[in-house]
Amino acid sequence: MPSFASIDIGSNASRLLVVDADDAETVRKQVSLRRPVRLGHRVFLTGQLDPAKIDQCVEALREFKQELATRDLAAVRAVVTASARDAVNSAELIRRAEKEAGIQLESISGTEEARLVKLAVESRLRLGGYRSLLVDLGGGSLELSEVHHDEVRFSSSLEIGTVRLLESFLTADGPVTPREEKLLNDYVDRMLAPVEDQFRRRRYDVVAGTGGNFDAIARLCPVPGVPAASTDMPMIHVPTARALLERMKKLTPTERQAAYDLREDRADVIVPALYVVVRCADLARTEEIVAPGVGLKEGITVELVDKYFRVWDYGVDEAAMSRAAVHLGRRYHFDEPHATQVDRLACVLFDRLQAVHALGPVDRQLLRMSALLHDVGDFISSAAHHKHSQYIIENTDLMGLSVEQRAVVACVARYHRRAVPSAKHTLYKRLGPADRRRVRKLASLLRIADALDRGHRSKVRHLDIELGPGLVSITPHGTGDLALEVWTARRKAELFEKTFEVELRFELGDNRGPVLTA
């Protein structure tokens, strides 16, 4: 029976989850470990991970590795969240995790964190048909995601976290003073301001909170009149949480620990957590928040299991990522008809030339993101827009993309024109050999797709593609004269021909064929 493991290195604690699965529906928890390593200690003030905390984290990873060594693992994923995103020396932690503990640790973005948390919540709550707000509160960040009919319509990662708030605004071993409370509330309000209108104008059927503090607050603030034994889904009663905040903020962490039976590493962060919970409840205009008792580590295992048993819906992934790309493109006033036409052309080329490029479904997703965003740099400068497109993509969190995948997409977009991939270019040079090959292949396809919409008029409606020994022949059909498109495609064929070691021919077609579909 295969086992699957997830490791979540958070700002307040490190966690290991191991599950066994007979199939995608029959999953059993086998091991759940938590180690109170506050990796986020001082990182949000200094910008650096504390060396002592790195030591503690590596020691926890060694312990996790020993546990994993006893099991037949089909897949494992280990991630680190906001503390590493904010630290200039995060590479040191990642290097030591692999060298000393044998764990490949991946630093993930806030949007990737939100995506995985959504998977976890969906494993406990039925979100389809409802408008839901997911609130994931960690030690370093707050992820807010609006979900409607199973789709993430809007997601934002904010620099609001319990450890961040505690160390920035509160006295570690004392009660909360009026001045500290004002500073903390002002900061939270300022961080929420850019997204407040987005969430305040909605009415949510479900508001779900994830993270250890939501679970602790749900235990202390149950909905009145609902016996705990009558439901396996804890609920936070927000008015009770407000009253709890008023009592807790007057106590020291030691007093809170004794009075409310809290762990030491929960007693200090639960007060900043209560401030955030109450503020988010105001934002969502709700008096009840579901605490499903799952989080990032459960979301990781859901994905690992589904992909192993081949029930993962890559089409849903691709659609969500494409929506995120279009949303970003609109922020930069991109030429949406051109972007979507290049996307369609790129997909046709990818699907019809599978025997040539030998890439998989994830690569198709990366190509689509690159196609949709290849011209966003026009917002900055038309002359060098390919370089500006790379910069924008490289420095923007995009739903469903890891940091490494985002680098691939940024490079593919950059190489849709002008220079071909080269180790002289900084971002491309940082890629591993497999990703460099991936960039060359995807950029080869994107160059042709972009050339076939040279006039930004979406004239090409159908492609005839024929494969022969050492030869690929493409004949576009559409509306109007396609001579310019064919001429441009011929000029941009060199990278394709060198990458795939084939001759690429273009012929002029007639005005026929169905509309292209991605």
Overview of this structure, please?
By secondary structure, this protein is an alpha/beta fold. It has three domains: 3-107 and 299-307, 2-Layer Sandwich (Nucleotidyltransferase, domain 5), CATH 3.30.420; 124-293, Exopolyphosphatase. Domain 2 (Nucleotidyltransferase, domain 5, 2-Layer Sandwich); 314-506, Hypothetical protein af1432. The protein has helices spanning 43-46, 51-68, 82-85, 90-101, 110-122, 162-169, 178-200, 212-220, 238-248, 253-260, 264-267, 270-284, 296-308, 314-331, 336-352, 354-357, 361-373, 385-394, 403-414, 426-430, 433-451, 483-491, 494-500; strands spanning 3-9, 14-21, 27-35, 73-80, 105-107, 131-137, 142-148, 151-158, 206-210, 235-237, 288-290, 460-468, 471-478, 503-506. The strands form four sheets. A five-stranded mixed sheet has the order 3-2-1-4-5, sandwiched between helices. A four-stranded mixed sheet has the order 8-7-6-9, sandwiched between helices. The protein has a three-stranded mixed sheet with strand order 12-13-14, with helices on one face. Strand 7 and strand 8 (151-158) form a beta hairpin. Helix 5 (110-122) packs across helix 13. The chain is elongated. The chain starts with a strand and ends in a 12-residue tail after the last strand. The model has no long low-confidence stretch (mean pLDDT 93).
